[in-house]
Amino acid sequence: MTKSEQGHHRERQDPHWIEWLTGIVSALLVAAMHGWLTWEAFTRAPTPPDLVVTVLTVEKTTAGHRVAFDIYNTATTTAAAVTVVGRLREGNRVIEENDVTFDYVAAESKSAGAILFQNDPAGRTVDIQPAGYTDP
């Protein structure tokens, strides 16, 4: 805060109580975040990627048929170069097979993608599975 004495501005020497409160709250938040991150770093065991695919929609497009899906990584380790293979089956016979590669699927997260088929999936079995990954 500034005070005016004979037209001159002078800075107050004592800080306002709100400045103290803001500083204390900020310091407590930073200390709590630091403590939580340290706790997580030392107590959480790394687990290898655990990938699960869930089919969302099947849509007709001008290029064929798009099967949209989510891929979840429920583990605490990121997977890189994740390959997902989609197979269109009629009984035990594979009609069509395509794959897609994700750059990475982060730990405890999900990513979305789609596989394109030329043949119509209606009345057929769509099987989409993760096929492999590399450690980043």
Q: What's the gist of this structure?
A:
This protein has one helix and eight strands.
Topology readout:
Blueprint: E1 2-5, E2 8-11, H1 17-43, E3 51-61, E4 64-73, E5 79-90, E6 93-105, E7 109-117, E8 125-134
Antiparallel strand pairs: 1-2, 3-4, 4-7, 5-6, 5-8
List keywords for this structure.
136 residues, alpha+beta, 2 domains, three-stranded antiparallel beta sheet, 54% strand, elongated
Q: Main sheet, how many strands, which sense, barrel? A: 3 strands, antiparallel
Number of helices: 1
Q: Which runs of at least 5 residues are low in confidence (pLDDT < 50)?
A: none
CATH topology of the largest domain: Immunoglobulin-like
Task: Give the beta-strand count.
Answer: 8
Do you know the CATH architecture of the largest domain?
A: Sandwich
User: What is the structural class?
Assistant: alpha+beta
Which percent range describes the beta-strand content?
Answer: over 45%
Supply the number of structural domains: 2
Overall average residue pLDDT: 91
Percent in helix: 10-25%
**How do the strands line up in the largest sheet?**
3-4-7
The shape is elongated
What is the highest CATH level, the class of the largest domain? Mainly Beta
How far apart the termini lie comes to: 52 Å
CATH homologous superfamily title of the largest domain: Lipoprotein YajI-like
Order of helices and strands: EEHEEEEEE
